[in-house]
Amino acid sequence: MPKYANWAASVIDEARQSYCKKKGQWGIPAGWGDGATHHKISKQHLALLAKAINTCMAEGGLSKKQQDPERKAAALSFWKTAQQCAGDKVMKSFSNPPVDKILWNMPVNLEVGPEDVLENPGQSFDPNTEVASQELGTRRLTPECVPLQAMERIFLPPLQADHDYLPSADEWVRMDGFLKAANDAFQHDLEQRLGTGLLSVPRTEQWIADATGLRFQRKRLRRFPGAISGRQIYQANHLAGNVQALATAAVNALGIAWPEVSQHQVTDSGGTQHQIQITLNPADLEHMCLRHTYQYFQGAAAIKLVNNFWPVNVVPAVAALHQQITAARPFIAQAVVDYLEIDDFVDYQGRITAADVPAGQRTIFFIAAFDSNDKVDYEIDLETFAPDGADAESYPAAQLTQVIS
Question: pTM of this prediction?
Answer without folding.
Answer: 0.90
